[in-house]
Design goal:
The chain is of the alpha/beta class. The chain is about 25% helix and about 20% strand. The N and C termini lie far apart (about 60 Å).
């Protein structure tokens, strides 16, 4: 219907329409029956309290705060492991990373990556003819067969692994070759200007949204920042009160704002689930080039809350409650089955670990986490902790702790190797994990030990020399 005819008909019916109301009405009619879009924005090493609404100090994040105000803020949102590749493997497949053979942070020497037998988020929505793209860090294997365009994504532009894996590394530069910048499955440059990465990824995202505004799409923007080496464009250099780290966060916030504005400009806000999160906690050894997990314990590389609990915001107008908080524990593994349910796609035939959490996201009365044992926290293949309800049990293991003075200006300090015992924490009463209450709750300890044994049988546990019955091999070059 032409605009003048629509307004004439509306006027005859006694309906007063502004231009904005007319635009919204047309958008609603155009999008009726359309499958939803999904935009996942994934920061790298962003700390729990690095976003304004989580208590950031020294910089502002108005666009992320806006996202929280228009949607849900999650207080207890987790990644499966506190390290890059493993975290991303879980986001993409809905599986614990050790189930699919992806551990630690893969570098240029890794001759393995995500298996072609796994099903990524992109491959799930491809069942419904979605347009798909990822711009930014991949980190699930750098050989062509492991790259995103071989795993359901139509478009890819970014770094195949971490931005510090290059000859300018502050402590081990001779180990790394030139850092590749990849488009599709081809290297188009090496050692790119990292000050432009956030801008480049944002520009690619905006073009993708515009190009695919008439069809459903999945867009993943996996920022290189604030993983070291920190770098920021001229438009945000010196903008924060806390130096370069704050500048970098403000530029990420700008990028989020650009993407939100594009969704609004093309009338896609009400048709799009937006998710913002981080891949793990802050890399504390970098001091003023690292974020904060305040008030949580430790950071990246540990299964203490500061390493695995991350900021997470979600928005979908009319579908997700506005300006609310969700305190139920949730994890990235749950996004794939939830998205599959929303679009009516089939789940993989093999075992996955995530569950559909849409009742929680949509605010259904009395909705609860669908996991019985909740979540297991591995580092490589060591079962180091688990959470069930308010309880978190930590198993005896060694971990790296920052016990000395933090590093400065892009140079890290060293860690000390620390051991912990069998410990129990009440996260509702003690989010900082300071009071070990294992002696006071023997029944809880017994129940959690049973759950841990089930995980060891299923996923394995190198701490107890167990091999899991249901783990799968990654893809391999040899």
């Amino acid at each position: 219907m032409k605009r003048r005819d629509f307004l004439k008909t509306a006027g005859a019916a006694g309906i007063g329409l502004t231009a904005a109301a007319y635009s919204r009405t047309l958008n609603a009619a155009r999008n009726a029956g359309r499958l939803p879009n999904f935009v996942i924005l994934y920061a790298d090493d962003l700390g729990y309290s690095d976003v304004g609404v989580y208590g950031a100090r020294g910089w502002t994040t108005p666009n992320l705060d806006r996202l929280a105000g228009e949607g849900l803020l999650f207080t207890d949102f987790y990644v499966s492991q506190p390290v890059c590749s493993a975290s991303r493997a879980s986001l993409m497949t809905g599986c614990y990373a050790n189930r699919i053979g992806i551990h630690v942070a893969l570098d240029h020497t890794a001759r393995h990556g995500i298996s072609s037998r796994e099903k990524t988020l992109a491959e799930i929505v491809k069942q419904k003819d979605y347009a798909t793209a990822i711009f930014g860090k991949w980190h699930l294997g750098h050989y062509p067969r492991f790259l995103p365009t071989r795993h359901g994504f139509d478009e890819y532009f970014g770094l195949p692994y971490s931005n510090d894996m290059w000859p300018n590394h502050p402590t081990n530069g001779k180990y790394y070759p030139p850092l590749p910048l990849v488009e599709g499955d081809k290297t188009i440059a090496t050692n790119p200007d990292q000050s432009q990465l956030t801008t480049w990824y944002t520009e690619r995202a905006l073009r993708f949204i515009q190009k695919n505004k008439a069809r459903p799409f999945l867009l993943v923007v996996a920022y290189a920042m604030p993983h070291v080496p920190l770098s920021v464009s001229a438009k945000f250099k010196g903008k924060s009160e806390q130096g370069l780290y704050g500048d970098v966060i403000m530029e990420i916030d700008w990028s989020v704002g650009q993407i939100l504005d594009a969704l609004k400009r093309f009338g896609l806000e009400d048709e799009t689930l937006v998710v913002f999160a981080s891949d793990n906690g802050p890399w504390l050894s970098y001091g003023n080039h690292a974020g904060s997990a305040r008030p949580l314990r430790e950071g990246k590389g540990t299964v203490w809350e500061g390493g695995i609990r991350v900021p997470c915001l979600m928005r979908w107008p009319g579908k997700i409650p506005q300006g609310k908080k969700c305190s139920e524990p949730l994890m990235t593994i749950d996004l794939l089955p939830t998205i599959a349910s929303l679009v009516g796609a089939k789940l993989p035939e093999h075992t996955i670990d995530g569950k559909n959490i849409w009742p929680l996201l949509s605010g259904e009365p009395n909705a609860k986490n669908p996991h019985h044992a909740l979540y297991f926290y591995y580092q490589t293949n060591e079962l180091q902790a688990l959470r069930s309800g308010k309880w978190k049990m930590v198993f005896p293991h060694a971990y790296n702790s920052l016990t000395g003075k933090p590093g400065q200006d892009g140079h890290p300090s060293g860690y000390s190797r620390v051991k912990c015992g069998l410990e129990l924490y009440d996260l509702e009463d003690d989010v900082g994990e300071r009071k070990n209450v294992i002696d006071k709750h023997p029944d809880v300890v017994k129940e959690l030990q049973v759950l841990a044994e089930l995980a060891r049988q299923d996923l394995g546990d190198s701490l107890t020399s167990r091999k899991g019955r249901n783990v799968r091999e990654p893809g391999r070059i040899d």
